[in-house]
Design goal:
alpha+beta, 46% strand, globular
């Protein structure tokens, strides 16, 4: 089975109105999984660390500079055509406005609203850790 290794950015912010921690979720605008929601990111290139990958991918996909803080977890999932390994990295915004260059839609989600979108199957596997992290930081 084909192996794909990616990094996903769990981009954090504190909502200025509610003072709750939130993450940025994006909706795929292309491919077999068009319309499904995901943690933004992409494939790790040869010689690249997961952290270097996520900084590059968010710059390319969302025109934003992020700081890769730490890996929250690593997800392994078998899709029908490939095995995915995803490094889920907590990130903070350094500069930029999160412009959607490849995605159909986006939103900020709190621990309470985290499961309100239709996540990709692999991304669902990290949601419990994300929710626990968001609740610990409030």
């Amino acid at each position: 089975m084909k192996q794909i290794t990616v990094s996903g950015a769990i981009i954090l912010r504190t909502n200025p109105e509610t003072n709750k921690k939130e993450i940025f979720a994006t909706q795929r605008g292309y491919g077999d999984w068009k319309g499904w929601w995901e943690i933004p990111g992409g494939k790790i290139e040869q010689g690249e660390t997961p952290q270097e990958c996520i900084i590059r991918e968010i710059r390319e996909e969302l025109a934003t500079e992020v700081r890769a803080e730490k890996i929250l977890g690593v997800v392994d999932y078998d899709y029908p055509a490939f095995h995915l390994t995803m490094h889920c990295i907590l990130c903070t915004i350094v500069s930029g406005e999160l412009k959607l260059l490849e995605h159909e839609n986006a939103c900020w989600l709190s621990a309470e609203s985290l499961r309100s979108v239709n996540w990709l199957p692999a991304d669902e596997l990290i949601l419990d850790k994300v929710a626990a992290f968001l609740q610990d930081r409030n």
